[in-house]
Specification:
This protein is an alpha+beta fold and 760 residues long. 37% of the residues lie in helices and 16% in strands. The strands form 5 sheets. Strands 16, 17, 18, 19, 20 and 21 form a 6-stranded mixed sheet that branches. The radius of gyration is 27 Å and the shape is globular. 52% of the residues are buried.
Amino acid sequence: MQAPTAFPLQEVEMTTPVWVDRDEIDRLEHTRVASLNGNVSDAVWNTERLKQGIYGQRQPDVHMVRAKLPGGSISPRQLRGLADIVEAEAIDEPLLHVTTRQDLQFHYIRPERLAPVLHKMGDLGLISREACGHTVRNVTTCALAGRCPRTRVDGHEVVSAVILHFLRHPLGQNLPRKFKIAVAGCESDCALAPINDVGLTPTEDGFFLAAAGGLGQAPKPAIPLGSLRDEEVYPAIEALLRIHHRHSDRERRARARLKFVVESMGSEAFQELYWEERENVAPFHSAQGGESWARRTPDLTAPVPGVSGWTKQIDGKWARGVALHKGDLTPAQARQLADLVSGLGLDEIVLTQAQNLVIVDVPEAHKGVIDEGVFGIEALIPADIGVCPGAATCRLGITRSRDLADSVADLPLGDLKVRISGCANGCGHHAIADFGLHGLARKRDGHSIPAYQIHVGGSASGTMVPGRSLPLVAAVHAREALSRLVAAYNIERREGESVRGWAERIGPETLEGLVAEFAPGEGELEGLLFDWGSFDRFSTKEVGKGECAAALVSMIGAHMGEAIYELGHAQTLAAKGSVAAIEFAHRGVVAAVRALLTLRGEEEGSWQFGEEEALAAFERGLQNTEMVRIHFTQLYAALRRAHRGEVEPFVAIAAKVIETVRRAVESRDGSDNLQPPPPPKVEAVAPETVLDLKGVGCPINFVKTKLRLEMMPAASKLTVLLDDGPPIENVPLSLEGEGHAIEVKEPFEDRWKIVVRKKG
């Protein structure tokens, strides 16, 4: 088999992608084996498996696989098949877990079984592609969009089209971070559009677009960007994808979301940038055409569907909500559900963002059978509790959120929404719950104490309002603290009063007083050192790790992905004789040049290079400079001719240049590991040298350190000066991951000093 190709040039054709791609599954397995043999770096393997919807776990040598289900839709056959896969392949805790993006994920899969698992999923018509990683994630919608009487547009039809359009999209393979899209079915917005990077709410003749929303450590609602016609949906999303790709902070992953682009440049400037990018992509989409979706007049007086129970559909049939405890299904429960649904001639189940499910299209005569059949599947107490995996399996999880969810299930919650996250990243949606909790750690007398911050009165339907944050409570007291808050609300609320209304009425001092005694600084220390469900003392040693090498691969991949994307547009336009193809092709060449600059650890300038800058950068990056000069001479000669209508020669030469760069990037040392070329051998280097990287961000600081170490003898020492923040947090851990030793790590003036001993 041929070596894995990280940036296949054939993707420039921008054709409609296949759903299940067997070849890419085989390439993934080849990359895994190559990483074991040292033929590609671990960073390449990690980046590629993330694109395939595969996360590492806190436990060694096992992985989580996430099935990407558009709008949460799954057939009984597919559900039964996943149950079989989990039961056969998971080496521990065989469970199917519903996520807040309407996916199904399962854990404890051995690395060597990943490709067989993906092939088995392919047999079912299921994929995991781009369900994880810095990609366009699963697109969500209201579970009953298209069936609920309030429906204006069938969100499932829109979701399926959008996912297929952006699946394997070159621009979406190496984003700064994930990119989330939601499509509401009506103005009630059960899809939670305001917390997404792109939120589409249907109108009579199109959609209303909001962008740059998100949760995490800094929840922010999406900002309005105006109305769209149906045919403008793809170019609008693509414009926002381009902004994220180019302007989100790749050096600080915690701030690499569109909401922080808005924060840094301001809402008005962001909107201007959006319209600039709309103009940039307009020629391509004008040539391609667009989609259209049917509308209906909604019945906005109909009740909003609940977590459990029956909802009458617009076709006269019924939908049955089924509340799942912690979003979990055992293989036996999944089979029971699949058999129940298929046995009645039904063919669809829909997963919800609240981590529950809905059985749809049920005839009136079968309602009793369904009610009896879900016994043993539905939670005994069907409370609206959502929870992420937390520290049980997630590498970023701090607290054991699932165990806390077990402990609060018997509280008198009624219709209250409770959401629990194991860290501040907010996968459990804690910020928009009636009562939300997120895990964190606090120091006391030199010990780490597991704790939770409670958030009160959040919501996200229509508009996003984060809950009010209360003081921290020790994890062992989190259940009691929540119980006290719920009891106070149930007793004190007025008729029809929401949790937020109650919280605002009684005021922050009263709220904080309800939980003050549960603070991590109160009580006997020994009793606070254990998390829910654990008999081991709490520790954060396993949380997170350095990822400079992966960031380097991602950044190079981002530039090559953009080159492929721009060239694909150029080729489509050139085939139609459009002069607009020239600008797309030029941008593709510039993006390819930036990939070379990143590989060599050089500082990056503006996104648009002049001709001389591009030529100089190319010559620094490739050894065969004569070939480069010939290409560039032809390129700009073609550009001059293109003004007289000869577009295709320019685009053809641009494709050759990008292919030249691709080969150079992938074969710098005779393999595909994207490492810089071997440095020239030196006779001697001082026993200890100093590398000052003040002002150099990630991952370029890591690249420069690696290049310097490669020029030094084994076991020699290098002193590196790094800035505070991500540089000192990531570079030392990443160097250790490559086998080097960090002998000193200490503050130095206004930054940090580390001393690295080279491996060998």
